[in-house]
TrEMBL record:
Residues 30-253 form the Histidine kinase domain. Keywords: Kinase, Phosphoprotein, Transferase. It comes from Paraburkholderia tropica. It comes from the Bacteria. This is histidine kinase. Its EC number is 2.7.13.3. GO terms for molecular function: kinase activity. Pfam families: HisKA (PF00512). It catalyses: ATP + protein L-histidine = ADP + protein N-phospho-L-histidine. The keyword Transferase applies. It is an enzyme of class 2 (transferase).
Length: 256
């Protein structure tokens, strides 16, 4: 029993680390994008000023030189630190292979229970219907899908009241699979220090903030990247207290 408990703890730690790694990648991507626009504008205005300022004005020329140097230093930092750090997850390679869908779902639910579900007293119920008999086995990156599904289930627990009901609806055909997690949102629980948590505090604080239209909480970036790598889609509805929240992961489940 102790060995099983240790294995579960290690598994939870690895899953949390992967979620944090992809969230870091997303944050760095935002930083890189949001800083480049004003830096480009500063560089352009410096060029305009250069044409307007008297070349004999030494102080003005030093100021322009300082502006250019500052811009070049910031761009260099973005290229050598931010972009280099992102390189590992920028292009997500997946390893497709056939696996049983039911076993994947059972594993993800059990991992989610062990990570936070049991501690919060939430109940996970699974509903599934294979439209095609061939859907009993799908071809995709099993580990990446397991990570994404685990994160969706844990995020639902993080944003639920203790004892809540969380539903996982699974549907599949011979060519695609969809996982939909539904629960009653309670976003205030993200910042409740009296409750157990498994996701890191920075992720919880950001998820508690109002999200931009069409955007998911940063901690769910792993789900977004895995969906895209499989030619699929990830959708997250805004968290509104007392209303039904939904996370949906759809993927192509063939090698094509």
């Amino acid at each position: 029993m102790a060995s099983t408990s240790q294995t579960r703890t290690e598994r939870t730690a690895r899953l949390c680390a992967e979620a944090a790694r992809f969230m870091r990648d997303h944050v760095l991507s935002r930083v890189s994008h949001d800083l480049r626009s004003p830096l480009n504008a500063i560089h352009s205005w410096a060029y305009v000023l250069e044409r307007k300022i008297d070349t004999a004005d030494a102080a003005a020329q030093r100021a322009l030189a300082g502006i250019r140097t500052g811009v070049e230093q910031q761009v260099h930092l973005l290229e050598t630190l931010v972009d280099t750090t992102r390189a590992e997850t920028r292009k997500l390679a997946i390893e497709r292979g056939p696996f049983a869908l039911d076993a994947l779902v059972d594993e993800a639910v059990n991992d989610a229970r062990a990570a936070l579900g049991d501690a919060r007293g939430v109940s996970y119920t699974v509903h599934g219907a294979a439209v095609d008999p061939a859907a009993a086995s799908v071809e995709a990156d099993r580990e990446r899908l397991a990570q994404s599904l685990w994160l969706m289930l844990v995020f639902a627990a993080e944003t639920s009241e203790p004892g809540a009901q969380i539903a996982l609806n699974v549907s599949a055909t011979a060519t695609s699979a969809q996982f939909e997690v539904k629960w009653t949102a309670s976003p205030q629980t993200l910042l409740d220090g009296a409750l157990p948590h498994v996701l890191e505090s920075f992720a919880l604080a950001q998820a508690a903030e109002p999200q931009e239209a069409g955007r998911a909480a940063w901690v769910l970036s792993l789900c977004q990247r895995v969906a895209e790598a499989h030619g699929g889609r990830f959708d997250a509805q805004p968290l509104v207290a007392g209303e039904t929240a939904t996370l949906t992961l759809s993927v192509s489940a063939t090698g094509g």
